[in-house]
Amino acid sequence: MSLDTNFFARPLTGLPLATLLMAVTPWTAQADDIDEASLGIPGVEACSARYTEVDAPRPSAAGNGHDAIREGFDTRRHWGTKQNVDRLGADQTGLGEPGLRVHYPADTSSPGDGEKGGAGFYTEPAALAGAERACLTYRVRFEPGFDFVKGGKLPGLYGGDAPSGGETADGENGFSMRLMWREQGQGELYEYVVDQTGTSVGRGTWTFPSGQWVTIEQEIVLNDPEESNGLARLWIDGQPVLEQRDIVYRTTPDLTIDGLMFSTFFGGSGNEWRTPRDQYADFAAFRLYVPTT
After folding, report:
1. pLDDT tens track for 128-154
2. SS3 per-residue string spanning 31-97
3. Locate the Polysaccharide lyase domain: which residues (predicted)?
């Protein structure tokens, strides 16, 4: 399986809206809740080229994944890190820096569905304090022959309480902008923002391969309170794949971008989402950027 390079040559607006916006859970917003005119492809260079790097968190030298995360990412908000995470050395990633291997044990899906597979944690780097624009990059590598089943979650940026799991984003309590893999490795943006609670955006506009590193780059520009002028942009391996405009992340200036929401597991919940066998994915090369002042 390889990246859908033909996609980069065709306009996003030429794709059916049903392809761009697909429901993924019972509480997901329907396709007609997002205006097709708000979707496109980034017309600017990748955010890592326009912003300044301010943080490069990575696993510490601790011998286990749990401690490596707590120390290297300076977090105390986590789940699944003791059971399902190993630290990878730089020789194992091949990237010149350490990484994380997250396990998804057989017959597991979301954290709220029986046995827990995957892991999650939150960062709040001081360098992002008060940020209204931010850029996140990281790399993911699904094991060779990875069975994507119906889908699963991937990390993204968040603010406030990072609503998820069917919670309502009310403009004051926060937002989350994770990614998902879907059947056969299709990629998508998966958002919790005002009026969009668990919405699938841009599904299939790129495809994750297995057995090789893929670079994800996400830019978020918060809306002005009382305005619907927020932005989200994605690049995959340096190629622009998705831009969404007119997003309402917040209704108060007190809500800003806090950091990385590391979140990965199969699901959804229910038997049809669960991984049929033990599987893993690797993560590394996390970087955070903000605009040059």
Report:
1. 999 999 999 999 999 999 999 999 999
2. HHHCCHHHEECCCCCCHHHHEEEEECCCCCCCCCHHHHHHHHCCCCCEECHHHHEEEECHHHHCCCC
3. 97-286
